[in-house]
Each structure stands twice: as C-alpha cells, then as structure tokens.
C-alpha cells in the first residue's frame, strides 16, 4: 500500500496492571499491549483510516514477533520494523497508582533496538516522498539513532507535514541541557511541533505556552501545538493563535492519551483542516484514550470521536 504517514521511533510491549490504585508489588495480573510513542501514534492514525507505517527495530524474540503481528492487526505496515540481533524487544511495566499519571518502569538496557537505527534501516524513498513524516524527541536520545534521525530530516528538506513530537522522558537523558541541544536542533527541519509544557520548556527554554509558541514559530514552524492539560490546547501559526478547551472525562489511565492526540493530529493535517478543528478533534481522541486502559488497543475510531464532540 502507499503510505500516507511514517512515524519513527520507540516501540515496546506494555504490561498493564489489571488492578488499579496499587503499587507494582501488589499487582497480581497484567494485560499485554503494543506500546511506544511512535508506534501508538501510527496505530491511532490507522484507526482513523490513514495508511501508516512505523520505522523502528525490535529484538529477535517472541515479543518482536508480537510487535509485527500486532501492527499488522491494527492495519499499520510492519515493513520497516528491523531487528537488532543482540538486543531484546523493550518491555514497559505500568503502575496505575495514580491512574491519571502512572509511573513507568522501562526495560531498555543496555540500549533499546529502536535507538540503533542506522542509514541501512531507512527507506529513503519513503522518507522523502511520504505525505507526513513523524519524528520524536526520544528518537535522538542516543546514538546511532540521533544521527540517523537528523539525516532523515535533512533528506526530507523540511517538506510539508514534517512533525516533531517533542516526547521528552527524563529517564532517557543524562541532563536537560543535552536534551535541549538534541531536541531543539530538530526544530530547524520540521514544520509542526507538538508537546506539553514540560516538553516545550526542554525544547525552547520556557514553559509559558505563548512564549514557547513565539519561539517555535521564530524557528520557521508553520504550526505549534502546546498541550496545557486542564487548560486545553494552544494552537499557533504565523497568522494567529487560539486555545481549545479540554474534554472532560473520568480518567482510567493517562498513558497513551498524547499518542491518541497525535494520531488525530496526523489525520487532521492530512485532511487539510484548520488548526482549531484539528485541536478539537485531537483533544477528543486523547480524552477517549485516557478514559480507557491500554494504549494501542484504546485508540478511538472516527465515529467515537465525533460522538464525543
């Protein structure tokens, strides 16, 4: 199939407690789900009818087989999922305590396969021609993926719909300063950036949404999307800005909400919607994911989003 959106970055197997509100020591059973930011975003966009693929890597193990099978089941092409022969597919344990902001326990040592992407793993023709390319901040947290992702963006030449998910997770970085240099360096190669207050502060040095939007647009971006939690979402372009109010839901698990938001953002960009409509739609998608358990399996359909709206 012809790919409409290619996401690049993290993949893993998420293990969710089937008991909420207790620490990991008190959990007796877990449910398995496909996970990883770039992977979840591709799944979320596929749920909305988009033809997606993810560029990533797994280990030569049963969990790697599961990743490919799960992607195929979700309608996401597994064609660009490589294998790192000496590494294991990452596993992530979630603790639903508290459910709104669950702690995560990552097993990605000595390095995750998705951070070993090299030039040989990249479908360069797809990178240059795909209507939408999605890269992540986590994708530049280590070499060789850091250099590879930069080369990918250079090859694309800041083509339309080149999106940076700021995706900052402190456990993957030795310091904020290194993260700012690496993630901030990507801003000159993308047209859209999306992140929360913490993530924009890492990227551009301020957590104030309007000031951060100013700094992002000054780098040549066409759209800055800043998630403000209970205060809604700020969308800013060179022509103006608006804040979209939040969707109110009862939170079951906060994980994956941002990825559901991202998949809907992809759908809106490819549909040519205006920024406010995109933000409203993405907000609803994220809220639906937050009201459910799991990430990839929780991604909503277009009918579910429209019903909430």
TrEMBL record:
Keywords: ATP-binding, Kinase, Nucleotide-binding, Transferase
Domain of life: Bacteria
Protein name as it appears in the record: 5-dehydro-2-deoxygluconokinase
Matching Pfam families: PfkB
Family: Belongs to the carbohydrate kinase PfkB family.
GO-annotated molecular function: ATP binding; kinase activity
InterPro entries: Myo_inos_IolC (IPR030830), Myo_inos_IolC-like_sf (IPR023314), PfkB_Carbo_kinase (IPR050306), PfkB_dom (IPR011611), Ribokinase-like (IPR029056)
Domain Carbohydrate kinase PfkB: 6-301
NCBIfam families (UniProt xref): myo_inos_iolC_N (TIGR04382)
